[in-house]
Amino acid sequence: MGRLLVVLFLITLSACAPRGRLAYLDHPDPQARAIFVGSTRAPDPVTGQPFGFERSPELRLARFDVATPPDRQTAQIDYPTTGGTPTDPKTQFMISQAQIDLPRAQFQSELRTALRQNKGEAVVFVHGFNNSFAEGLYRMAQMGEDFDLPGVMVHYAWPSRANVLGYAYDRDSVLFARDGLAELLGDLRAAGARRIMLVAHSLGTELTMEVLRQEAIAHEQGLFSSLGGVILISPDIAVDVFQTQADAIGTLPQPFVIFTSQKDRALQLSARLTGQSDRLGNLEDLNRIARYKVTVVNVSAFNTGDGHFNVVTSPELIRLLDSTGQIAKVLEGDQRGRTGLGQAVILTVENATQIVLAPISGG
What we know:
Layout: H1 2-15, E1 33-41, E2 55-67, E3 94-100, H2 104-117, E4 121-126, H3 133-146, E5 152-157, H4 167-176, H5 178-190, E6 195-201, H6 203-217, H7 221-226, E7 227-233, H8 239-249, E8 256-260, H9 265-273, E9 295-298, H10 310-313, H11 315-322, H12 326-331, E10 345-349, E11 352-356
Helix pairs in contact: 4-6, 5-6, 6-8
């Protein structure tokens, strides 16, 4: 009982913690990077923020130019929060300019121009559980900066309650938000995207898999022909649910990469809440998904915090993946045992490959 009370107390404290919010520079930053946004979040009538946690039946389109703070280290992400704390553009991600609730024609026109300048390449990020709109947006900006992501950056913001006690609400929102993500991907293709990399985290991975599943069932091959790969980071999906989704999809888009960690405390809690032993994101037995052509990258050795987002929160892991283009080898599922990714151990079972990453000795 004592442990339970401590856990409940900590959860309550976390629920009351300040959350990320949109804050604007007093002048445009010419170095700010554009992030195109599709969202099924409604405006927040209480805070006045344009994207809250309530659900919008319509896909809302926007563009944000996000400025990266000059005084930051790799993996560091600071941003303005609720609670009246002062902003600091030297250390915090902030908004340079914003266009909210764009007409679809204008959104596609600006997107088309950006895609032409980036060889038709785009990266779509789907955030995870317990995220405010601003937090997901700033996270994509951080990923773009730390990994020097190529192509146009696009963020799909589904209506998370941004509260650790809102897990049930967020799971329902994942189902609610499926059509919005499919619509946004359709807008991308209509604007001329030729190679779309889908990147999803936590509960956002289930949303992503559900959209791929429904598109496959509807025989919508346009999406699959334009996909340049799928990356699931710490997927909060039951393994048997993933199996049914993958079976419905058929041939998975390639490369198909799953980042896992056996030390992911958030997924350990999720497994307990759902009465299961594990989730896809902390899977230990590769045999359970061996029939699928996937590359599983185990990053347990790089745990930071609760271990739920090591790919973007561990400076050492970011440097390892980003060094000399090594992340491309991970995405290509290099199975030859010469990954150049430190002291990596590679295991292949049927169609699946697992890469267990370890820090470079002396690094």
